[in-house]
Write the structure tokens for this entry.
Amino acid sequence: MSLFALILAVAVNTHAHFKPDTVDYWHVKYNNKIIAEYTAFDKKPIVIKKQRIKDTDILTVEYGNDTPCYEGDKGLYILSNDKKRISITSVKINQPLKVYLNYIMATKAYYHLKNLDFYYFDCRRDNLIFRLKIE
């Protein structure tokens, strides 16, 4: 019986020292159609043609991981040229993040932004997730 207790103690102790190995992932949708799927290792920008954008077009980000955050806001922001946060969208519950592309274009013009680097934040994370290029 003591051998079983020893094995159990080692197994429990070993498990407590390991973090989950699941990589965060996110999908970006343009009008409910997936246009990009990312993990922390992906850096390919999303390119959208300016003349293609309509008033009703929506960009949606679905972020997933093995340790979701159920408290506080989660959302998207971009950085201004002087590195200040410009909020794009946020929610209080665990749901996809949606924003009209016209709002993104207006924000880009108002702040004279060259790059549109999107950052995701929640109670545990604050990460660059993708770059959007509007050509």
